[in-house]
Structures are given as C-alpha cells and as structure tokens.
Design goal:
The complex is a heterodimer of chains A (222) and B (452).
Chain A: H1 3-14, H2 19-26, H3 30-52, H4 54-85, H5 96-115, H6 123-126, H7 130-164, H8 177-181, H9 183-208
Helix pairs in contact in A: 1-2, 1-3, 2-7, 3-4, 3-7, 3-9, 4-5, 5-9, 7-9
Chain B: H1 3-19, H2 24-38, H3 43-52, H4 62-76, H5 78-90, H6 96-109, H7 115-132, H8 137-147, H9 158-167, H10 171-177, H11 179-200, H12 210-219, H13 221-235, H14 241-266, H15 279-283, H16 293-323, H17 326-335, H18 340-357, H19 360-377, H20 382-395, H21 404-413, H22 417-440, H23 443-446
Helix pairs in contact in B: 1-2, 2-16, 3-16, 4-9, 4-14, 4-16, 5-6, 5-12, 6-7, 6-8, 6-11, 7-8, 7-21, 8-21, 8-22, 9-19, 11-22, 13-14, 16-19, 17-19, 18-19, 18-20, 19-20, 20-22
The chains are: A mainly alpha (222), B mainly alpha (452).
C-alpha cells in the first residue's frame, strides 16, 4: 500500500470503534503523513476557534490545567487525611494523580507556547534587526510545529495501543489509561494552534513595523 | 558521511538554535530526534517518553505541588513575614538587608522547592527596599539570583525529587541530607554579602531591637509552622515527600482563606511599619479569597508546564546518550582519573561546566545516572554524592551564559542580565567554597540522616 493510501486508511479507522483496527492503521508509515496534515489543519482550526471565541482563547488551557492541579492537590491531601483520620486510603489516590499531572502539564505547556515563556537564551535574538528576529521566530514556529507533529503521531499510537490492550489504571478496576492518554493529542493540537497564532501575530507586527519580540513574563496574563 | 560526523553536525546545529534563542525544550528535543535518525532509534522512543515520564512514579508529583506551595505562601503574605523576620534579625549588621534577603530565601526554600520561585518572590519583594537602602541595584539583583540557589537544596526540593526518581534513592533521605549543606550555602552567601557591603559601605543599619525580633517572629509563625510540618512529616516518615507537598498545599490554602477575613478584622494595612503593628495583628497574614485561587494555581501551572516537558525530553536525551555509549565514555574518563577524590572532583568539574550551558534539570537527568554508579563504585556514599551533585547543579543556576536565576532576577528587578554578572562573582566564590567543603566532609550531608 502506498503511503498516501495508508494515510487515507487512518480516517475510517478513527471512526471504526475498534481499538485493534485503529492500532493497525496507526502503525503504518502513512500515519506520519496523516498526522502532518492533521497537525496543520487541526492547528488552523484551533487558531480560528480561539480567534472567534476570545473567552476560550484566554481560559481553555488555563482552566483545564488549573482544574487538574486542584484535583491532584485535593486527592493527595485527602489521601493523607483519609489515612491518618479514617485509617483507610482509596487505592487510586497514588495512581490517578500522575495521569492528571500529565494532562495538566501538556495543556500548561501549550499555554506557555502562547505566552512564549519556555526557557530560552534570548540575549542575541533581542538585539537582532527586525528581519533577523522574524527569521528566528519563524524557525521557532517550524520547530514547534514539528514537535506537535511528532507528539501527535506518537501519542495517538500510544493511546491506540493502550486501548487495544485494555490497560487499566493501577489500583482501580474501572478507569482506563487511554482516557487520559487521549487528551495528549488534543493538547498538542491546541499547541499547534498557538504556534500558528503566534507566527501570524509576529508577521503582522513585522509588516507593520511594531516591536516583534516582547518581554515574556512567567505568571503573566493570569 | 560517518555517524560521528552527523552527530557533530547535529550537535553544532542545535547549539546554533540555542544561541539564536530557540527554547531549550526544542533544542534538546531536536538533538534527540536528529541523533535518533543517525543511530536508527525509532521516533516512538522519544514521543512515548512525553507520556511515559508521568507514569513512572508518584514521587514526581511532589514537584508541581511544591511549586504551588511557593505561590500560595507568597500570595498569602507568609513569605513577606518571613523576610520581615530575617531583616529584624540581621538588619543591624552592615549589609543586613542583603543578608536578610539571603536568609529569607533560605526560609522560603524550606517551604517551597523551586529556585526560580525563590528568586522571583524574594527578589521582587526585597529588591526595591535594597535599592532604597543604598545598595547597588546590580548587587541587589545578584543577591536575589544567588539566594535562589538554596531553593533546591534546602528541603523540599524539586531537583532532589527528580534525582531520587531517576536513581531510586529515598527522596526523604535526600531531603534530610540537603538541610546542612543548604544552611551552609546560606551562611556562605551571607558572609560574602557582609564582606562586599562592608567594603562598599552599602546599607542603612537599623537598631538591634529584641521586641521587633519577637514581633516579626510571631508574625512569621505560620511560615515556621509550615516549615516544621514539612520537615517533621518527611523526617519522621509520616508522609512521603509527595504527601508532604499535598498536605502543605492544603495547609496554605486553609490558612490563606481563613486569614483573609481575620486580617480584615484584626490586621493592619500592609504599609504600616512593623513597630506600629499590634501583636494581635501580627498573628494573621494577608491571606486570599477563593476567587483568587485560580490565578495563583494558574501561575504554578505555567511553571510546571515549562519544567515538566523539559524533564520528559531530558529523559529521552539521556536514553539516546546511553545508546551512543556516553555512559561508557564518561565512565571510563572519570574512572580513569583514579580513586575516590579524583572521581569526586572530576564529577564536580563535569557538573559545573555542563551547568554553565544547560539548565540544571537536564544536567541532572543526563549526568546523574552516568556519574552516580561510578561514584558508588569508588565508595562514595550515594546520598553524599547526590548532595554534592545537586549543590553543583544549583550553582549552575547562577553561572553564565545559561544561569536561570540570573534571568529570573533580571526579569523581576529590571537590571539587564549582563550588568548583574559582575556582582554574582563573590556569591559564586562563596558557593564553590561551600561546595568543596560539602564534598570533602560527607558528614555535612549524612550526619543527620535518621538511619545513620
């Protein structure tokens, strides 16, 4: 089967309802092509979603990560109280939080892409002329896009494998691991949208002669 | 082209990306991807690590929770009270405010576990006062940057959690082992501040007042309680470090919410001098309201969203380096140096040089699994080596060109990065002196371990 045929075969597999069929389709090389197109189109969709719903643009990733954070803290804190006061402990209190942590971290990572607060050595970049700054920002955008593409492809495969193996979260008998894993491609799709949005903003600033690189502040826009 | 040529070219390429300001996360990620192509490692190996890293254990969860603790104690006003107390104890000495700033970093570090949170919180609080008190602003910014290094040595500590997680060492033991070296770092930096301020005549002295000390000590009681709670829980084994972090978060949220209405009833305005505040008003802190909690948590989530992906790609990088034979290469090099001290000092040199160009988390994740077994093979106690390694990694936060605390201090004080570099040197000398002392005297790390 050609790589294009393999990529096309991913689409029906996505809607098949069978984890085994998904895994078969996702394991093919065409999955990389499919995910490249998906990362771009999904990113564009996310960008326009944010553009037309500014409330979501400001709050979606933050809300997800804050809620996950609070649930993690709540479960762990309650786990200690439960053990000391009631002499019992819910078996999932140490196994569910790592998955919530994963969800929190990648949505927060996506929001950091928007805020451009990921650690970097920007001393030289900030002293470059506008064309140089635009070039480095375009390089960043391309690299972030590639990061999203690889992460979406591999996380979809990982999720399908987990679903196909009926992997349960340790210590509980009714919560599947893939329920959590499936949020990862979503987070990276939103991240791709942030990358596209940032690049368009930079390009507009460059064309209009406005300042392109601004000081990013951790904890800013909160 | 030979594999070694490709590896060199890829390494040079990502170094260029780094110099051009590409985020460190992407620099490491693309190095891993590039090398994976060269040595035929499947890309899934790297991609899966972005998920796998979370499912490897409960211990890593302490990291976001201690970051959150830092933000909660800052927002609740507990951090302010701790720094007021430090100033009342040290303000009568030349350079008292600078020393108080470092001591406040130590106290803050004993509740939070993050170097950047320590630098940002104490720097933004005390820098304006230091400038008002006739200190050079560059020295003030450097003080905040240097003080933040203890954030990850005095327990709880994010980097100890990562180290324990990687090498299967008891994190509780690592935390306890960090207490004395952390205190020595604080003392070393305070000595450096005292000398520099005495030479330059910086600082406005305040009188030594016992009543002021008692009042600010009472004002900081919640901070001391939180420190005691964390240390007691971990030291006695009542909680795991992750549970200690969860309990501290719960404590801080409870205190913050209860204090807010109490402070409105019995507290004083924040701009009232300590002398004019009543003892009763010092019992409560500023606190916060329920609607403020999401913005506090959101800030912590942002910091976690920076650090955790970095851990994930660093773990992948460490795996790729193992496949390249880096473990054997560095191992042979270090082992070839000779016995106990040669291995110890060579490891320290490697950590120091790497810390200058890489963030401390990747340094730990990449080098610790390589160096720790070699150190153990020549008889260095694993807990002692961990402390030596991590004190070195923490010094990496203030070594240019890539010193994270220098960037954070520059950001919160507005002093340009390159201008504060000169003033970090005395602190760097003090930290390195303490580092060697800790390396040469294992008891500094091991003496108070519960099972020794």
């Amino acid at each position: 089967m050609s790589i294009i045929a393999e990529a096309v075969a991913v689409i029906p597999a996505l809607f098949s309802g069978s984890a085994w069929e998904k895994r078969q389709a996702f394991d093919a090389d065409g999955m990389w092509l499919f995910c490249f197109v998906y990362t771009f189109l999904g990113g564009l969709a996310a960008h326009y979603f944010y553009k037309f719903l500014p409330f979501m643009e400001r709050h979606l990733e933050r809300t997800i990560s804050v809620v996950m954070y609070l649930i993690i803290a709540g479960i762990i804190c309650w786990g200690v109280i439960d053990r000391f006061v009631f002499s019992s402990q819910w078996s999932g209190s140490t196994t569910i939080p790592p998955f919530l942590f994963m969800v929190m971290a990648w949505f927060a990572c996506s929001y950091n892409v928007k805020l451009r607060t990921h650690l970097s050595f920007s001393e030289f970049r900030s002293k470059m002329p506008p064309s140089g700054q635009m070039a480095t920002l375009t390089l960043d955008a391309a690299l972030w896009f590639g990061f999203c593409w690889i992460a979406i492809t591999t996380s979809l495969r990982f999720t399908a494998l987990s679903a196909d193996n009926f992997q349960l979260v340790d210590g509980v008998d009714d919560i599947m691991k893939w329920w959590f894993y499936t949020t990862i491609p979503v987070a990276f799709t939103l991240m791709s949208g942030r990358v596209i949005g940032n690049w368009l903003e930079d390009w507009n600033n460059y064309k209009s002669g406005d300042q392109i690189i601004k000081q990013a502040v951790i904890g800013g826009d909160v | 082209m030979a594999d070694s040529t490709w590896i060199t070219l890829i390494s040079l390429g990502v170094t260029l990306f780094f110099m051009l300001g590409t985020p460190v996360l992407l620099v490491i990620f693309y190095w891993v991807i590039g090398i994976s192509f060269v040595i035929d490692l499947p890309l899934a190996n790297t991609g899966n690590e972005l998920i796998n890293v979370f499912s490897k254990g409960f211990a890593l969860l302490a990291m976001p929770l201690f970051i959150l603790t830092g933000d909660l104690i800052n927002q609740s006003g507990i951090a302010r009270r701790l720094s007021d107390f430090a100033y009342s104890v040290l303000g009568w000495l030349r350079g008292g405010l600078a020393m108080a700033s470092i001591a406040a970093c130590g106290l803050f570090a004993a509740i939070s576990g993050s170097n950047s949170a320590t630098t940002a919180t104490i720097g933004s609080m005390l820098h304006p006062e230091m400038v008002k008190g006739n200190y050079d602003e560059r020295f003030s910014a450097a003080t905040a940057a240097a003080g933040g290094t203890v954030g990850i040595i005095i327990p709880p500590s994010i980097i100890f959690i990562v180290y324990g997680f990687l090498l299967n060492l008891p994190i509780s033991d690592l935390f306890v082992a960090g207490i004395i070296p952390g205190a020595l770092m604080v003392l070393g930096m305070m000595t450096a501040a005292f000398i520099i301020c005495t030479i330059n005549g910086w600082g406005v002295l305040i009188g030594l007042s016992v009543s002021r000390m008692i009042k600010t000590g009472i004002g900081a009681w919640l901070g001391f309680f939180a420190i005691g709670l964390v240390l007691w829980g971990i030291y006695t084994g009542k909680f795991s470090p992750t549970e200690a972090a969860g309990v501290t978060v719960g404590f801080c949220v409870f205190i913050g919410l209860v204090s807010y209405p109490l402070n409105r009833i019995m507290g004083s305005a924040s701009d009232v001098p300590v002398e004019q505040k009543s003892y009763a008003s010092m019992l409560v802190v500023q606190g916060f309201t329920v609607p403020q909690i999401p913005s506090i948590v959101s800030r912590s989530a942002q910091i976690s969203g920076i650090l955790v992906p970095l851990i994930a790609v660093s773990v992948a990088m460490q795996q790729v380096m193992s496949s390249l034979g880096a473990r054997e290469f560095i191992g042979e090099f270090v082992t070839g140096m000779g016995g106990y001290y040669a291995v110890l000092f060579t490891s320290m040199a490697i950590v120091f040089v790497t810390g200058m160009i890489l963030e401390s988390l990747p340094v730990t994740i990449i080098l610790a699994p390589i160096l720790a077994p070699i150190a153990a093979s020549v008889g260095i106690d694993p807990i002692h080596f961990a402390v030596v390694f991590l004190v070195g990694a923490s010094i990496g936060f203030v070594t240019p060109p890539y010193g994270l605390n220098l960037y954070v201090a520059s950001g919160v004080t507005g002093v340009p990065y390159f201008r504060l570099l000169r003033y970090i040197v005395p602190y760097l000398i003090a930290l390195i002196a303490v580092w060697f002392f800790v390396a040469l005297v294992p008891e500094t790390a091991l003496a108070i371990l519960p099972d020794r």
